[in-house]
Amino acid sequence: MDRLIVGISGASGVIYGVRFLEVASKLPLEIHLIISEAAKKNLEIETDYTAKDLKAMAARVYNPGDLGAPVSSGSFLTLGMVIIPCSIKTLSGVANSYNNTLLIRAADVCLKERRKTVLVVRETPLHLGHLRLMEHATEMGAVIFPPVPAFYHKPKTIGDIIDHTIGKILDQFGIQHHLFKRWGET
């Protein structure tokens, strides 16, 4: 079974991380989860979910301070990593290889091993410093993936909009899904 690292940082939009876990936990994937302390706070503020709920959707959960965890090593094989949502603080850590937490170290490992690393940056508006961090992370191999909705699939609910983003992220890893109607499908 393929392994995928899922990181949830302290940006607003934690529902994207929750929904990603809901979907991914039903796929033939082994989910390795890292939740930052700030993400746990946003989870309480923005949703009715708890960290315990999220942990139940993962095969393995890591303490964000455990820099010796398996996901901190390139010899631990994975498809890659998604950080959903990705705060600007986390983006900055990744873009600068500032490996002070497991969340950033795991992303750094995926980048050095040339594994797919998707950063769902959730911030607006953006200033030049943010854009430069995104540019730097992209140059290192990351995919910058802000959750920007599309409307060609005619979403009816906020859930439809969220599912479109989740589906597009799964597409990045080549993982089959049926979360939205694709362009040109009837």
Strand content: 15-25%
Shape: globular
Name the helicity range. Answer: 25-40%
What's the main sheet like?
A: 6 strands, parallel
Radius of gyration: 15 Å
| Secondary structure tally: strands | 6
What do the pLDDT scores average to?
97
Spans of at least 5 consecutive residues whose pLDDT stays below 50 are none
Strand order of the largest sheet: 3-2-1-4-5-6
Draw up the topology in text.
Layout: E1 2-8, H1 14-24, E2 29-35, H2 37-46, H3 51-55, E3 60-62, E4 80-86, H4 88-95, H5 102-112, E5 116-121, H6 128-139, E6 143-144, H7 158-172
Parallel strand pairs: 1-2, 1-4, 2-3, 4-5, 5-6
Helix pairs in contact: 1-7, 4-6
Architecture overview:
This protein is of the alpha/beta class. Helix content is 39%, strand content 17%. It has a 6-stranded parallel β-sheet with strand order 3-2-1-4-5-6. Helix 6 links the parallel strand 5 and strand 6. The longest helix is centred in the last third of the chain and has 15 residues. The mean pLDDT is 97.
Keywords:
17% strand; 186 residues
Summarize the structure.
By secondary structure, the protein is an alpha/beta fold.
